[in-house]
Amino acid sequence: MIYKVVKYGDPILRRKLKPTDFEVLKPILPQLLKDMEETCLAVHGVGLAANQIGLDYRLALILIPESDKKDAPLKRVVIINPEFVDKQGEIIEEEGCLSLPGLWVEIPRATDVTITCLNEKGEAVKIRARGLLAKAIQHEMDHLEGHLFIDHATPAMKPGIKKEIKKLRPKWD
Ligand SMILES: [Zn+2]
């Protein structure tokens, strides 16, 4: 099933999501992840957080190429109740979000991150990431906190972003 992705302006995108009890999630998780994956693929996204489909779980799914090779298969990374252990470096790159389609903004992110979380089997794992995965993890963890990538823009950029959103909004359904 393909979910409708919640767009900017919906209050659930600003909600800090509740820590998720894996035992509660477990029975619905396989189907939920399948649906989140289908949704993410349908809109050509790199990641999707639970509140972007209207659900209050500290859960996000990331779909990322397994290698740098062209047409590399996608790997699914599921993070549940993630916490940052370490962040290193800084890079300023363009970023977008399925909840603000069409908007691209240059914002700073750490280049390397280490997090702890539960994986889709409910196992406690540590993930060290750099490059696109590090960026996606930071983006999705922002969602779980009720934050959005545009929050990282400089004050000088914000009026332009507001104007751009106003222009884009009529195209969102
Ligand atoms: Zn997003």
Please explain how this structure is put together.
- The protein has helices spanning 22-25, 29-42, 131-144, 158-168, and strands spanning 47-49, 59-65, 74-88, 91-95, 105-109, 112-118, 124-130.
- The protein has 173 residues and is an alpha+beta fold.
- The model has no long low-confidence stretch (mean pLDDT 96).
- The chain has one domain (11-171): Alpha-Beta Complex (Peptide Deformylase).
- The strands form two sheets. It has a five-stranded antiparallel β-sheet with strand order 1-2-3-6-7, sandwiched between helices. A two-stranded antiparallel ribbon has the order 4-5.
- Bound molecules: zinc ion (ZN).
Topology of this structure?
Blueprint: H1 22-25, H2 29-42, E1 47-49, E2 59-65, E3 74-88, E4 91-95, E5 105-109, E6 112-118, E7 124-130, H3 131-144, H4 158-168
Antiparallel strand pairs: 1-2, 2-3, 3-6, 4-5, 6-7
Bound molecules: zinc ion (ZN).
Short description:
The chain has helices at 22-25, 29-42, 131-144, 158-168, and strands at residues 47-49, 59-65, 74-88, 91-95, 105-109, 112-118, 124-130. It has 173 residues and is of the alpha+beta class. It is globular, with a radius of gyration of 16 Å.
Give a quick set of tags describing it.
173 residues; alpha+beta; Peptide Deformylase; two-stranded antiparallel sheet; 28% strand; binds zinc ion
> What would the principal axes of the Cα set say about the shape?
globular
What is the strand content?
A: 25-35%
The strand order across the widest sheet is 1-2-3-6-7
Q: How many E strands?
A: 7
Attached small molecules = zinc ion
User: Structural class from helices and strands?
Assistant: alpha+beta
The CATH superfamily name is Peptide deformylase
CATH architecture identity? Alpha-Beta Complex
CATH topology label: Peptide Deformylase
Report the radius of gyration as a whole number of Å. 16 Å
